[in-house]
From TrEMBL:
Molecular function as annotated in GO: iron-sulfur cluster binding; metal ion binding; methyltransferase activity; structural constituent of ribosome
GO BP of this protein: translation
Main function: Mitochondrial ribosome (mitoribosome) assembly factor. Binds at the interface of the head and body domains of the mitochondrial small ribosomal subunit (mt-SSU), occluding the mRNA channel and preventing compaction of the head domain towards the body. Probable inactive methyltransferase: retains the characteristic folding and ability to bind S-adenosyl-L-methionine, but it probably lost its methyltransferase activity.
Protein name, as recorded: 37S ribosomal protein Rsm22
Amino acid sequence: MATWAYPPLPPARLEQEVESTLAKELEWLLRSLQDSLVSLREGLHECAALLAPKEPGSTLVLSSLRSENVKGYVTRVGTQIVKGDIQLRLSSLASVRGSANTRLCLSNASEAPELVLDQLVSVKNLVNQSLDIVDVSTWTGDPLNAGFIFSQLHLLRETITEARQMLKGESDKVKQKWWEASAAENMFDPPLPPCLSFHLTIADSALVLHLRTLESSTPTHTPTAFASDISLTGFNIRDRLFGTRHRPHDEAGDVFTWKGDEVKVKEKVRWTIGSRYSSSATPALPDATHAERKDAVYALIDEINQNEAAMADIMEELDLLDDFDQALNLDGLEYEHAFSQTIGHRDQETLEGRVRMARQEFREYLPPDYLNARETELYTRLYGEPIYRDLDSIQPDLELAEELEEGQDPAADQLYREDGQGGWEEVEMVEEELELELEPEEDDIPVVYDMEAGPEVPETDAMRRTREIAEQLGGEVMLEQFQDEAVPDGNDNPRFHPTTELGRSGTNPSTVFLPNDSLVKPISMILSDFSNKHLQETARRVFKGQYLPLSVTTPPRSVQAPQLPSPLEASQRHMSEMESNAYLAAMYPGFYASVLSVLVEVRKRLGTDWLRGLMAKEEGPSVLDASAGGAGIIAWREIMRAEWEAMDPERPFSEIPIGKSTVVVGSNSLRARASALLHNTTFLPRLPDYVHLRENATLDDDRAPKRKQFDIVIAPHSIHPIDEEYLRKEHVKNLWQLVNPNGGILILLEKGHQRGFEAIAGARDMLLKRVIRNTDLKTSDEDIASEEDAEDDLDLDKEPGMIIAPCTNHAQCPMYRVPGHTVGRGDWCHFKQRYIRPPFLQRIIDAKTHNHEDLRFSYLAVQRGVDLREEKGFKQDRVAKFHAAKGYEHLFPDPQTRAAMSEEEQQKLAEQEAQFEPLTLPRIVYPPLKRRGHVTFDICTPDAQIERWTVPRSFSRQAYRDVRKSQWGDLWALGSKTQIERKVKLGTKHGLSKKDRLEARAAAREAAKDAQEEEEADAAAQDRKPELLIPKRKKGEKIPSWKKHQDKKKVRQHYSQLKPADS
């Protein structure tokens, strides 16, 4: 290809144009290079952050597979090892008398030398040099000077290459000589044994520990540190009888100078720290023979499988498969599984694939001896301890999986009932209007037999009608055998036990009626100036549906609505007139009901003294509504009005000390509407940023910055809209800085679905780890306050504080073991509050029959600066759970029972009643399952465990009567007869949801159907028999037996259809 310039240019002009073009291209390349340098600088900053001395550092675990040779951990902060505790059990290392292990523990003494990793120090310096080079190339020098940029890039390449070599640790020059760079004895407490070398290096970007036991190279019979095998006759009896023991390693026979003595390496071991299992021995040579034999075995297994498949096709052609199906190993021993127990799996992907297939096939159960030891360890690490069940008992689950493979969901819109002959028959269902209410799951309910209960009485039509009327009225039918449990009229005894009354949660009555004067009427007057149809269309468009799924409402799981945050936020700057109206109509009622429910619970847990103390302040309480647009202030004033009325019903409401109220509202249109509902209220366009605000005076300004802090901070639905985790933490920390450090309350609230719970649980986890000082003892092995974390927490500037509700523990949330977003989460902590919808909200959703709605929400209420555990002297741990399981029914007896006690018993009872604290009780986290003769409910215990408790009628008359009236969210104080641990469905960090899995299976079936049709069309065009296309077995895939039978059936049907055509 040639290029011509027309009209022709002189050679000098042409050469000048070529040089100009090359100069422009070079300039363009140099300018583009600046963007690459910016990205490189960010990556180098991340590397520098990893090597910075930032607490708490990273803790790496040491362990050995199928042995107890090594156990322990080391903690790296920057380029130093600051903590370490290792237990050794080596055959060549004499242990301390009375212990089978040798303990190596880094000393915490100030005079002890530091264990510095020289390779990481060099890498850190090289990274800083690289940053300097990039800064010089970008800012100091001329970025368009090609010669200068070339020299800088060449220097940068050499620096980064040197850092890579330091991390790879290939040469002895990089990783230093062990006899010169081993750790000193006084670094450890107690000191290292004199015959042990402790050497830490970096190899392949991993921390590697070399331990060597040494012996003197000169023969000696004097007891020294290097002469441990001593006999009285001058020779070792074991060596004379059985020969000298040889421990093969790459340094065997070499002589080294160690601390002035010539020594030999008796035993050498190597561990790569941080991997789940590490090698506890150093092989002499790489086991290439084993790898070759393993490849040969698996190649032979593949050949056997191919031959069996070919034999199956031939037998199908000869119509012999039905009569001689046992000739093939279709359902027999799997060779690959049998050999993997001895020679190992093909690769890591095959191992993980078999474990995942076992999980997919058997779900939460596992047949005994189905997985070998290595596979069981991986299964435990991924899914927890397996629950073993016989294969016959798992068969119904396999049949369910077969129906799902065929595209039939047995639980989707279909109801079955017994046909009286041992089978099931379908029941026709009539579709009704969707109600936003979830039914409690009833799986895994333990059976509790009550020996005092008589035979079940059949329900007649009259009894059924009576029961339906009682359920509509919120009561229940009392049968004759339960009449003695009812409280007769005129009895002065209380309905519930006093401890049950103290533990009850929620509002009274349980349904919230929106205040007419302060909420319903003002909003109705504002909306009366606009068209109802226009308002309805705007609300449905903004909140994505008739039932407003993206508002405060939480749709049921069956709807499978996307768990997205609300598109309208009070803090957003731009909001149209109709959007502001939609916000008032759709968000205010739900915000008011949910915030009111949380404030009622906080007031119950802190008592009347807390609330009346706020009202007695000189300027009254200060409250901040951070994200509810003013609905939180209305709910707070309703709480104060109720308390004011309880204090003195005759005093007018105008004298209530409202205090200072502040609302964050960004848009002018919403601020104008909120100001019509709220008087004496300050409005802010945005939250103040106290996270990045300096705390002390500076050289330029000696004035300390003033911070506005509030007694109550209400922040509903403010965390979920934030996507990045670090921004969520900054937002929660900023809200915490706004709380009064002398007993202020922070209330966080999100929608009651999985994503909302994860936002609340993440904020709780951050507050417990970084802000609140935990005074409780360690309650479980999975507790946040583990021994290692407790030492790390000493370096954090924590302050007193306490979770008021809903948690009665300060450990890691049992429903949030895996931080962040998970797929398939089946359990999450949330609660319910019913409220009566106002008329304007009824018109928006076109509700004709129901005028109420059940809100589901997850929340957290934390108090800053005050820890009731320290003030009242109680703990939230296993002891508290033990006492709660026994019950507190003996406390607060009736006057007749108390009068019958002796003076000493009354004094002891009074002390126990004074020590009783509702914050040490377990909380009911799901709706109780009330059955005849017993009640079963799931609780979160004070030691952070989810358990299922059962209270039968024979356990206690008072407890059974109270538990029949217990509600979701109550604290339970009267104990139970049985307590079993409940398996929590936490989901997985990576994976597909059930809906996505079903869609993928349907797509795969459609693709297979299309491929089969194409094969039949090609076969007809080529005048040949069409082949049956069955998906081939993937590498490491386990095909269930029912799938094999199904494929064989398809093969038989296919060939049986071809035979009549041939004839």
